[in-house]
């Protein structure tokens, strides 16, 4: 009789293969040497740039910090901020009006809105600023009264004119006012397209439902369409505000002598230190735009809160 052990350990018997399914797998990470080479190159370039900032005498940091916070420059900062706020306020209001005209269906209003947008989007803001700064060449005096009085009054046998008020154009349109008007009218054209896109993003079914409930068109616009369109309008409007802040530097060419860039240029020209003052201008604009970017971020989060809530409810219901 053969024992069980001899049948297993005898000649010709096979040992069972070890079970490797539970053995741990050793993962070998993929090597990317080119990434380390690129990182080293970037670090070297960054070190060279910092060294240039600290050692190049053309920057003249003590002179720059001494003059970039002087009283004329600080007043120029407030002028720049005021021009930005006023230009954007006028531009947004004008953009709402133009967008509503464009979507009204009235061919006259649509044509006027399209022509306005076409012109002010096509002409550079620098050209507009200089043009409005010299508008007194076209109109030396601005009159308020009945139109075409020089034609119809002689036909009626009347003498004089039908003008109730007049003012010298140079008195009314100072450099600041002319530059602000140019920026605001140009911004109105861009905001019209942004707001029009926002209005068209709202589902038409909501407008039809509101009309079925008897709401007027103006109330539908104020209560339903505009609040929902804001979610689409806010991000590009924030970008336009930042762009407007930078474009206020164009007022120096009107010229607006109290503007930030003009004041920094003037200091650089008087002291023959032009480059440090140009760097100071970069620092001022970077600081202000950084604050605006932070404000834009929180404003977008506020208007996107309702949309995030809807998405969360949808995802929660799916799970």
TrEMBL record:
Q: Which InterPro entries match?
A: AA_ABC_transptr_permease_3TM (IPR010065), ArtM/GltK/GlnP/TcyL/YhdX-like (IPR043429), MetI-like (IPR000515), MetI-like_sf (IPR035906)
Where in the sequence is the signal peptide annotated? none
Q: What are the recorded GO MF terms, alphabetically? A: transmembrane transporter activity
Ribosomal protein recorded as keyword = no
TM regions (residue ranges) = 36-55, 76-103, 123-146, 250-268, 274-299
Give the start-end ranges of region Disordered. 1-22
Q: Which UniProt keywords are present, listed alphabetically?
A: Amino-acid transport, Cell membrane, Membrane, Transmembrane, Transmembrane helix, Transport
Q: Which domain of life is it from?
A: Bacteria
Q: Please provide an example of a Pfam family that matches this protein in its UniProt record.
A: BPD_transp_1
* Gene Ontology terms describing biological process: amino acid transport
CC per GO annotation: ATP-binding cassette (ABC) transporter complex
The answer to whether keyword Chaperone applies is no
Classify the protein's membrane topology as the record does.
Multi-pass membrane protein
Principal localisation? membrane
- Annotated ABC transmembrane type-1 domain ranges read 77-296
Where does the protein end up? Cell membrane
**Family designation:** Belongs to the binding-protein-dependent transport system permease family.
User: What name does the UniProt record give this protein?
Assistant: Amino ABC transporter, permease, 3-TM region, His/Glu/Gln/Arg/opine family domain protein
């Amino acid at each position: 009789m053969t024992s069980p052990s001899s049948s297993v350990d005898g000649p010709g018997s096979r040992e069972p293969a070890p079970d490797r399914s539970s053995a741990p797998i050793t993962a070998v990470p993929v090597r990317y040497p080119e990434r380390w080479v690129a990182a080293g190159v970037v670090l070297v370039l960054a070190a060279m740039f910092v060294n240039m900032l600290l050692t190049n005498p053309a920057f003249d940091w003590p002179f720059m910090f001494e003059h970039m916070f002087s009283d004329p420059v600080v007043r120029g900062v407030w002028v720049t901020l005021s021009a930005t706020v006023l230009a954007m306020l006028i531009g947004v209001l004008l953009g709402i009006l133009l967008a509503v005209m464009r979507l009204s269906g009235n061919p006259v209003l649509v044509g006027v809105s399209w022509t306005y947008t076409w012109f002010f989007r096509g002409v550079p803001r620098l050209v507009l600023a200089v043009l409005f700064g010299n508008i007194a060449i076209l109109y030396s005096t601005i009159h308020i009264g009945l139109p075409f009085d020089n034609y119809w009054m002689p036909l009626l046998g009347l003498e004089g004119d039908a003008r109730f008020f007049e003012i010298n154009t140079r008195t009314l349109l100072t450099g600041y006012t002319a530059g602000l008007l140019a920026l605001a009218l140009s911004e109105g054209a861009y905001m019209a397209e942004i707001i029009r896109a926002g209005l068209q993003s709202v589902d038409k079914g909501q407008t039809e439902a509101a009309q079925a409930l008897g709401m007027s068109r103006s109330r539908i616009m104020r209560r339903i369409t505009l609040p929902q369109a804001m979610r689409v309008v806010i991000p590009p409007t924030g970008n336009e505000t930042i762009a407007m802040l930078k474009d206020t530097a164009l007022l120096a060419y009107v010229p607006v002598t109290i503007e930030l860039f003009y004041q920094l240029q003037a200091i650089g020209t008087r002291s023959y230190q032009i480059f440090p003052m140009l760097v100071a201008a970069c620092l001022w604009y970077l600081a202000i735009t950084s604050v605006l970017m932070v404000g834009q971020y929180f404003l977008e989060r506020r208007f996107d809160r309702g949309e995030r809530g809807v998405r969360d409810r949808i995802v929660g219901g799916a799970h």
